[in-house]
Specification:
about 100 residues; mainly alpha; 4 helices
């Protein structure tokens, strides 16, 4: 643990060579991804990925085939909220990159 976390030579040197706004944007993307990772761990990788694709409207995956079970409906809202948050970060990052 550093006495003063704002002074970190190991981090300061690489940050001099990149746009700080992009670093902050990437952190935002990571933070938006954490809720999906948690849901994936709590529910199931396959179920959450299926829900993300369908609920984000990126792809309609349809029903899962037997013997696989769909994500229980009580998890749909949590997956949708986390997915939309991640999509929002991605859109803002794309817009900021387009204006750079």
């Amino acid at each position: 643990m550093r006495d003063d976390p704002s002074r970190d030579d190991c981090l300061s040197r690489p940050l001099k060579s990149v746009d700080r706004e992009k670093v902050i944007s990437e952190v935002g993307g990571f933070l938006a991804l954490v809720p999906l990772e948690t849901l994936r761990d709590d529910i199931s990788l396959r179920r959450v990925l299926h829900g993300v694709l369908t609920l984000s409207k990126l792809a309609d995956r349809g029903r899962q085939l037997p013997p696989l079970r769909s994500t229980p409906p009580e998890h749909h809202a949590k997956i949708e909220v986390a997915t939309l948050a991640l999509l929002d970060v991605e859109r803002r990052l794309a817009e900021s990159s387009a204006h750079s």
